[in-house]
Amino acid sequence: MNALKILTVCVLCLYIAFLASLFLLQRAMIYPGTKTRVSKNPPSAPGSEVIHLQTPVGRIEATFLPASVPEKQPVMIFGHGNGEVIDFWTSSFEGFRVRGIGVLLVEYPGYGRSAGSPSEEAIRVAVDAAYDHIAADARVDRERVFGFGQSLGGGAMCLLARDRPLRALILQSTFLVCIPYGPFVHRDFIFYTLTPPPLATKLSNER
Asked: Sheet containing 102-106: which strands, arranged edge to edge?
């Protein structure tokens, strides 16, 4: 009987230790891209413009890839996945640009060369600031700014849709549910419990 009690206590201790490690390591699990090393200078693409935004969560870097059109252009704001940085995407949107659509790549706080630390609120501040900057650009048609979020970026774009008037919202490979990870996770985990596209549209309409 004593052996059974000892075994039970050991198993319980191991389980508690597992939950504690999950809680302590969850930020690294959600934001692995903060460990990605980048060069001091951002990669260049034809016509690219590096933007530095001063925000309450620190200096945020963004890259604007304007389209070569004489009239005001629509702009797509892109939010990348949690294991990436904007450097990976600098040369990936030529298809948009040749069709007259500018692209704004926004780096998350704590990622790449952006200052700060990633969190739901920090990412929200960053994408809102990026929107405000690009919507004020004389080359941009502020009535045709839309969001494109991939994976974690879908959460960022859904938040942006709540705060700012997006013409459209595109979500690719975005998390639909994270609740099964358990009740012990930090609220940042729940932030990425995202909804299917119909509700994303509803979020945009509720701004």
From this structure: 49-55, 58-65, 102-106, 73-79, 140-150, 169-172
Query: How distant, in Å, are the alpha carbons of 25, 66, 138, 168 from that of 109?
Result: 18, 23, 26, 24
Q: What is the pLDDT of residue 7?
A: 75
In the chain, where the domains are located: 31-205
CATH class for the region spanning 31-205: alpha beta
Q: Is there a contact between 125 and 55 (Cβ–Cβ < 8 Å)?
A: yes
pLDDT digits (tens, 9 = 90+) for 89-98: 999 999 999 9
Band of pLDDT at residue 104, cut at 50, 70 and 90: very high
CA 167 – CA 142 distance, rounded (Å):
9
Crossing angle of helices 197-205 and 152-163, in 10° steps, is: 30
Residue 73, phi-psi category: left (phi > 0), alpha (psi -120 to 50), beta (remainder): beta
pLDDT at 18: 63
* pTM exceeds 0.90 for this model: no
